[in-house]
Amino acid sequence: MIVPPASEPVSLQEMCAYLRLDCDEEQSLIGQLIKAARQYCEDFQHRAYLRQTLELVDRPMNNILELPRSENLQEVLSVSNATSNNVGYTVVQDLLARLCFTAEKNNVTVRYVTGVEDAAGVDEQVKLAIRMLVAHWFENRTAVSFGNTSTTRSSFGGESIIGTGEDHNIMNPGMLKHRIAFLQKSETVRDELGGKMPAMYSEAFKLWAAKSERPASRRELMGEHVNYVPVFFTVRRCSGAKMPDVTMRIRCKNLIYELLNISDLDNGYLEIETKLVKPL
User: How far apart (Å, rounded) are the C-alpha atoms in residues 21 and 34?
Assistant: First the structure.
């Protein structure tokens, strides 16, 4: 490749929305993954999606040279060989473009521009495959996943969209389908007689989360043994102002949950154990 595409089929903003990403500290990584995913898909399909300049050095067969990835040929910039920069040819556009030479040639060097002008011209299935591949790489940052006793190769399902791949096991960002608010407890306020006023909570930030319930549990809370149904929220780990702590509460739809425990899952996620407090 002589000149790479000036943009990508999937923008950074579109990819962050697809991932339901709440913090911007990994946007540089996501941009790199988008580029790598586009290159992966182009190599898999032997296509050039967006406008780019390529160079081919090859020998014509029967005075015909087919240009790779030239489904959307824009122009031929130059054709030359070792003895001349003025080589006679005509361009025939079929599924791929072919150069038909007027005389037999040895190796020739062809520089040409191919690909559509902007992302609107790229197939939606290609864009989906790029999103799926970026999500897969973002969520699985090693080539293998580790079980209790064995390792398995991480799978990618996007090939089944753009080709004939067989893997379908892929992390689905749609699992983070609940937009939850973390509520910060305000400072203690006392009434005229010096007594404590009821605690007040205000919204600190919001995150995308997966939600699940576990069987009823019994544990000691504030010196008392209580039965409750544990509700778990799984969120991506964010640094700084969007880092949950157990003094907060969670609002999900019309329900309020008390935080009991926060576990680091060592894969970029936090698992938050809660119990229902009351409806709003």
Answer: 15
Residue tagged 């790229």 (tokens): 122
Domain 176-279: CATH superfamily, name plus number: Bacteriophage SPP1 head-tail adaptor protein (2.40.10.270)
Would the pTM count as exceeding 0.85? Answer: no
User: Does the CA dihedral 92-93-95-99 come out positive or negative?
Assistant: positive
Closest of 4, 268, 270, 278 to residue 142, by C-alpha:
268
Q: Which of 35, 30, 60, 65 is nearest to 50 (CA)?
A: 35
Q: Which runs of E-coded beta strand occur in 86-131?
A: 89-93, 97-101, 108-114
- The Cα–Cα gap between 259 and 183 comes to 10
Domain covering 12-48+118-174: architecture: Orthogonal Bundle (1.10)
Domain map of the chain by residue range? 12-48+118-174, 52-114, 176-279
pLDDT tens string 200-246: 889 999 898 999 988 887 776 666 777 888 999 998 887 666 789 99
pLDDT band at 165 (very low <50, low <70, confident <90, very high): very low
Regarding beta strands 178-185 and 201-213, do their DSSP bridges make them parallel or antiparallel, or are they unpaired?
antiparallel
**Inter-CA distances, 179 with 22, 98, 214, 241, 277, Å:** 10, 53, 20, 17, 18
Calpha distance 64→47 (Å, rounded): 20
Any idea which residue has 């425990």 for tokens? 261
